[in-house]
Each structure stands twice: as C-alpha cells, then as structure tokens.
Protein: aromatic-amino-acid transaminase
Amino acid sequence: MKDPTIADIDARRQAVGQMMAPTAAYADSDMFKLQCSRASNKPAARRWDNHLTAESLARAPGLLKVAARFLKRPGIISLAGGLPTPDYFSFRSISAKVPISSQSSLLEAESTITMGIHDIASENAAFDLSVALNYGQAAGSAQMIRWITEHVELVHNPPYADWDTCLTTGSTDGLYKALRMLCDKNRGDSWMTEEYSYTTALETAIPLGIRTVGINMDAEGLIPEAMDEILTNWDVAKRGARKPHVLYTVPTGQSPTGSTQSASRRRAIYGICQKHDVYIIEDDPYYFLQLRSRTSGGQPPPKLSVGEFLASMPTSFLSIDTDGRVLRLDSFSKILAPGTRMGWVTASEQMIERFIRHSETANQGPSGFSQAIVYKLVDEKWGHTGFLNWLQRLQAGYTDRRDVMMSAFDKFLPKLIVSWDVPSAGMFCWLKIKYNCHPNSNIYSPLDIEEEIFSACLKRGVLLAKGSWFRAEPDLLLQDVFFRLTFAAANAESIEVAVRAFGTALRTIFGLV
Amino acid sequence: MKDPTIADIDARRQAVGQMMAPTAAYADSDMFKLQCSRASNKPAARRWDNHLTAESLARAPGLLKVAARFLKRPGIISLAGGLPTPDYFSFRSISAKVPISSQSSLLEAESTITMGIHDIASENAAFDLSVALNYGQAAGSAQMIRWITEHVELVHNPPYADWDTCLTTGSTDGLYKALRMLCDKNRGDSWMTEEYSYTTALETAIPLGIRTVGINMDAEGLIPEAMDEILTNWDVAKRGARKPHVLYTVPTGQSPTGSTQSASRRRAIYGICQKHDVYIIEDDPYYFLQLRSRTSGGQPPPKLSVGEFLASMPTSFLSIDTDGRVLRLDSFSKILAPGTRMGWVTASEQMIERFIRHSETANQGPSGFSQAIVYKLVDEKWGHTGFLNWLQRLQAGYTDRRDVMMSAFDKFLPKLIVSWDVPSAGMFCWLKIKYNCHPNSNIYSPLDIEEEIFSACLKRGVLLAKGSWFRAEPDLLLQDVFFRLTFAAANAESIEVAVRAFGTALRTIFGLV
Structure:
C-alpha cells in the first residue's frame, strides 16, 4: 500500500460522512484508519504479557464505562450514570483567537474558533460543549481520536496492523502510566535511558523503586553497541536488578544533550531491542522541531511543500516498528502550548487497552476545554495541511533562535575550554567544559567546578541547567562538566546578554582574562 | 477568631494589592489565608509518617521545579528550563460565554469572560495566557490557589493551623494519588468504604492490591458503631490484611445510596477514627448539591442570604478536623462542568506536599485552559458571592429534578415491593426491591432477580444502575436488591417515561398485574 496522503484522509472523511459521537461515545483508532486492522496485510503486533506488571494485568474495565455501551441503543433513556445535564454547565460557549499560518508566515492572519453548548443539535456539528464538557471516555473524545489517528497514519504509518492511540494529559502522564504498566519493583525491574536524560522521567522511576541504567551516548545520542554490551553481560546479582526489558529514549533533540539519532542509529537500536526482547518507550516531544541549516549563502532554508516537509522528518521508532514493541509519546506542549496538558500515545492495541484502563481510575483523560479548543484548531480550522504549515513555520522560528544562540557562543565563549555541537532539533544546546583546565582541577572535583560556574553565572543574573542534574545514575562519579542551555524561552537580546555573562564567568574562573 | 466572611476576604485582597505571579510561580495556601499558620492560635496538624507509603516517602522535589526558585531573583535571565516562548503559543486569547446568576435565577444574564496572551503586561491583570498556557507548578497556578484557599476558609474554616490546598485534575486524580500515598500492598494494607460505594473508587484500589472493607450503612450512611466493631475485633490472620488505617467516605449525597451523614453522625465517625488512628479521605463532590424541602404549601424553599446559605451547608469532616487527619476532595465537575477536569484537595501541609510531589511526575496539574477559564469565572466574574449564588440556584434546579423523580415514583412504582428514602443531597436515589416477593424467590438468587429487572428495563428502553455494581466486597453473598437512579441527566419528561417503564417491568416480573 502506498504512503497515506492528506487527500486519502479527506476522501475517507467524505465517504464516511458526518461524525456521530454523542456524550461518552466509545472510539478507537481502528474506526478512523484508512485501512482497519482486519483489512490490513500488515503483521499483527506481538503480545507483551510477560512485560506487563501485575498491577497492569489486574486492571478490569470500569463498570460504569462498560454500562455506557448500552447507551448506543437508539432512544434509550439512562437513569444510570451520574452525568450532570448540560443545561447546568456554567459555560455556554467558548472561543479562541488563533493564528492562521502559511508556508511563509507563522502568523499570516488571526482567526476565531468557537464552540457552543448545543452545536451538534443546532448546527449538525461534529463536536460541542455538551459533549466535550461532560464525562467522557478516558481514551479521549472520538473527535480527537479521529484527528490523531489520521495524523499518526500520515506521519508514521506504523508497519503493523493493530496499532491504536489514546489521549494523555501530556507526556508526563503518558510516561508515568507506561512505567506503571511495564516496571514492577517487586519483580526487581530496571529500565534503560540515555546516560543523561530528562529529569522528570528519572524522578518518576525513583519512588516506584525502578532502577535506572544509563547507556553511553555520542553526538548521535544513545550508542546501540553500549546497550548491547550491558544487556549481553547483565549480572543480576551484581546489579541487584533484573535484566532491563524497557528502554526509554528521546530520539530527537534529546533533553539535555540536544542530540538526534540518525535513521541508521535508530534501526540499530531497534535491532538490539529485538535481540534482547526490550520494549521501547519513544518519547518524542521535539519531533517536529527540526532545525534546518541555512543555505551556503546564509539564507533561511527554502520552504517545503507538504510532501517534502513530511519526507524531511526523522524516521520515528514507531515508523519502523514491525513488532509493535514501541509505545510512542507525542505531545502538544512544545508545538501548541504546554498548558493544553494534552498529548497522545500510540502503541499496539493490547498496550493501549491497558493504558486506558489505568486512565479510567487515574484521571479520566484530558480537560474538555483542551479537547474542544485543540479540536477546533487542528481539525476544523487548520486541518492536517494547516497544522503542518504551522509546524514548518514554528521550525523556522526555533531555527532563528538557535542561530542567535550559536552566534553568541561563537562571539562570547572561550573555545579553549568550551565545546558544543550545533543541535539539529529541539530546544537545547549541550556545552562541555574542559574542567581539567581549571587552575585548581587537582583539588576540585568536576562537581565542585560545575557548582562554581553555576553560582558565578547566577551572580551575573543568568540561570543555567547543570549537566549533573540529568545523570541517569547519579551515584556514579561525575566524569564531565556539562551545561544545558535552551534557546526556546528568552528573547534574542536576552540570549546574547546571558551567553556573554556565561563567557565572562568562564574566563574569570579559568583564569583566561 | 470569628468565622471568616467574604468581606474579610475582600479586605485582605485590598490590603495586599494586585497579585504578582509570573510563569511557574510557586504558591501555597498560607500565602492567601486571612491568618497564616504561624499567626494562628489553632493547633498544628498531627504528622502521618507512619501512614505514608514507602513510595510516597521516597518522592523528592523535582529538580527543575526547584531550580525555578532561582527565577524569583529580579532581572534574571533563564536559559535553564525548556519553557517555550509564549510568542509561539497557537492561542492568542480565549473567551467564554457564562451565566450570571442571582438568588432568583440560574441564568439572570449571559456575560463574556476573556483572557489574552499578555494581559499581565498590558493591562496589569492578575493572570494571562502567557502564564496559564506555559508550564507551571504542579500544585496549580497561584491565581487558582488563592481563590480555593479563600473558598475553603470561608466554607470550612479548618480548625487546625497548617492546612494547605492544591489543585487536582478532578477527584479521580485526587483519590488515586491519596491511595498511592496511604496504602501499600507490600505492607498488607486495606481501606474502609461504605458497604456500597463509588465504583471508580473501588476499581482504583483493586489493581493496587489494596483490600476493601465495607462498613454497614443505614439511612444516614456509614454506621460508626459498625466501623468501631470491625476495627476493635480486627484479626490480621483471618482478614489477610493489616488493620485498616484509612477510611474513604462520601458524606453527602453518597453514591450510590444518596444518603447524607448528619452532623452528629460525622462527629461520631471522626471520634472512631481518632480512637483507631484512622486517616479519613473525605470525597465530597455533592457537598453543594443540597436538596431542600418544599414548604408545607408545596412552594419552593425561600431564597437564602449568603450567610444563611453558608449556615445551611453540612458540617464537613474538614470543618471538625482538629487533628489534620482529613484529606478532603472537592471538584468542579458537579457544580461547573465535568470537563473542567479540575478540583482540589485540602489537607495538612505534610500531606499536600507529598501529594504535589506525586503530581509533578504524574501529570503536572490541570489544563491551563481549565485554570484560565475557571479563574476568570469564579474569581473575576462571579467572586465568592456570585459563586454561592450560582450554587444556590443550582440546588434549586436539582431539587426540582429530584421532585420530578419522587412524583414519578409515587405515581408509577409498586410500593408493595419497592421502597426508598427521599435524598436530601446529591444526584441519586436508591431503591430497595423486596426480592423475596418474587414468585420464584425460592429458586432465584437476589443476583438473578436483579439481572431480570435490569434486563426487563433495558428491553423497555431504560438503563438503570444495578446495586450489585457498587458493592465494596463483591465476594460476599448479595443480600439485597437495589437500583440506583439519577435525576441529574435526563429531562423531566424522560424521567417520567423511564420510571413508568421501570414500574411496569417490576409489576410484570413480580406478578402484580
């Protein structure tokens, strides 16, 4: 089957007609795929029963959500579920001003989206506040599931048949539930991450009693051979933990290192995971923040067509996942706004079903306001084409910011003791400090020198993130001094001021003035 | 100190001046109380270290959230946190149409609330989208914490000094985290609930390996003497679980029974909990849905002033909690809309701190849209007075609906075999079926008869909730047949139609026609 296109998606919607999804309607991805699982000639996902925790296996469907299935009968009156009447909701309609972007501008124009309380009944709309603001399925509204399914098929086209999706309240929620699903301290479980990893991910595992094993990295991120060696030579007694059966990886614009795995790197990692029966959590919030290079003449890179743009995106683990061994986390936080507190997971049907069971008793899915407003924006206002246009313009914005920071590095940092790679995706730059050039490196530890630099910058009004904060195994001796700098938050002028202060602090501390 | 009033709250705000709470600003209740903990002459809460789980005790503050404290320094430039610039948020402003209610009408008029992206900078506003839609503290925005603190002080005025609050993504989230905080299967923990309880609560405990112990109820809900007896005679070996140290109770308009504990009942339950060192989770989503009686002439009850209204509210466990042994769950779901996916917990500082640590790695708090829109409504548009007016009108609406259902019961149900109490709060009515009047009660079990009635109603187009769905201990033999009916969802006409069908089904099954 050829790669799915936006035209295919549009044609499918035309053929199916208006969506009918009332309050708490059940939905899954198979209802919205171009080809449903059964019609697909792709292989089925493997089963992960041995990887699941006792807790996850013990989750039964919520009784009242099951009872909601009876609501499908036409004309049924329910006195069963305690769903408040929408007449008593304290919101009659919501609106938002949103940007219309084009290939040439992030804010081509401003437009308004609006959702009323009874738009389904009065305007034959697909979604309204009577549905969005009532109780719903923990998996998310049918309206959002449809859009996400189409998006996943368009961008990743997973190579197995029975993939599914559901919403999260952001990737923090997604990772937390994935960990509870896969790792159990009573089983002595451990998991693997990049040796420097996202602090919240590491902090999620600690109270759960899950040991973290850091895998060495290079400029392309996680090194598959290093992972293979650890797994091949795993000694349960020495490690005090079962051989890891889960890899957590941020393949694109990794936090904190800014590294992006190449396609061949990803295939190699996937192969090692197959070899050792390792399940992969692919956390990819920076996927769409590709930072392209300027032309040799210093001009911004040329605009891409939708097809070219899609072709320019990295090879996700999901897109090479023939086994269904990947649970992929996507998030609107970095591409619309963090406050949506909304994202989605994609994995095999088995895993998504377990995930939803957890959501039913943990939070019942994302805010109805978030679902309503994001749906109106990405589905009705933008559509898939408009969404991709927005992302391309966003990339240009972040690329400009990265270049501002790179210029400041070139101008203000002492290259004798600081080195860095130019990040090709994400929000972060990772600077390595040659701490052994410090005049007192014989008596100061790397940790001391890191703290000295951090404090000196603070005194000069600049807050940086210490590399040591991100260590997967903080008990190991710190071998290198790194700092993580973001170009996402401060404006261009402040970035310049801050990098200059950082450079001055380094020169002073290392006696270069 | 006299009871706090809305005038006191207004005066405090006047004295303090405009709130200054930028992106990810830290906030807790003590910043907004009429009297902060240290100035209070109330006792301090007890410590609950022995009740906390190993998991909860192992939670450390999130590193990046801690680093955010440095942001307080004036003029500091942060290159540390990966917070996207608000310039790239895809939402420039949001609006909602909301009802203005008065003491005499739920929808006196419609009004509009609006929040722009830079209102703080451009209009000296307290809150804007640049803050609400960026990453924030998991406890919730300072703006919402302030309103909730004032509300809790006004309505419950907890009798100990160091109480605190934080937001939840609804009470499902609140209960889930409270359970993880207090109950540990590795310790053999169990918890107590009403013998018929909220299914989601029961379903939350099962996969966590927490045993549920049901406490007998009467028309006033949980019977304290029954709880005392169970705790006094607890036999670890026989029960296969540690003596319960947690009580989960829904004191007002309990689901499924509709029962409401009297003030003296609550004091007695609190006393038994003190005697056995039991911690209380007070889940009170129906607190404000008091259903008052009509006058003897059949007229709606008279409107109350704000003071009278507050005085008419039940005695919450929080309001008699001298020990700080109550974690109270409040929710906007039943009083604004479920889709807000937002509520709050109130408990001692120690417990709220543990709760927030969990939120930091589980979901990072509620949606920014929810926080922005609800803040604009309950703080800026309504204020505390307007909020209480709304609640009083909401009570009148639900009271009318309850009365419609009660009339239908009187008209259509065979009293020979069905009995019920008129609920004084909440959304539910609990009907007891004299199953032993069934012509085949000698060969059919109560479970069979319940299923027969359920199916017969379904065939007649009516969905009811079976009493057996709500059993705290489903392994015990079902002794009684109950059905739960809600008057919150369907309209008056449908309620009549459904109750008539239910009555007909009962008459047919029990051979009363």
Notes: The mean pLDDT of chain B is 95. Chain B touches chain A through 113 residues (CB under 8 Å). Residues 413-509 of chain B form a domain with the Aspartate Aminotransferase, domain 1 fold (CATH 3.90.1150.10). Chain B has three domains: 1-40+52-96+111-170+332-383, 171-282, 413-509.
